[in-house]
Amino acid sequence: xxxxxxxxxxxxxxxxxxxxxxxxxxxxxxxxxxxxxxxxxxxxxxxxxxxxxxxxxxxxxxxxxxxxxxxxxxxxxxxxxxxxxxxxxxxxxxxxxxxxxxxxxxxxxxxxxxxxxxxxxxxxxxxxxxxxx
Length: 133
What we know:
This protein is mainly alpha-helical and 133 residues long. It contains five helices and three strands, in the order αααβαββα. The protein has a three-stranded antiparallel β-sheet.
């Protein structure tokens, strides 16, 4: 058997051609960011209802599910995902504990006047000053 140790120019040129062809085809099929339509997805209350209903149908312990707890839990985590720490408390709980010594001071408000829950924004600076006294 004869083994050739010489690499011909034909082989190198063919490899370069294949690589360049691949690069140019890849670039040609790439879309510019200006041409890409950005899709905006919103998760609405309707979508949340669909999730709750799906869980009610498919959960192993569906008889013991409490839909109102799922709404409260979703509200809590939605508030915690904001840049400012906000917490949601049942109004009766807040009223019973707001004067406790270890309860952090802060602002409280309702989203609607007839809500059973209050949204609480702690004021950590004010609480630290109170603790230093």
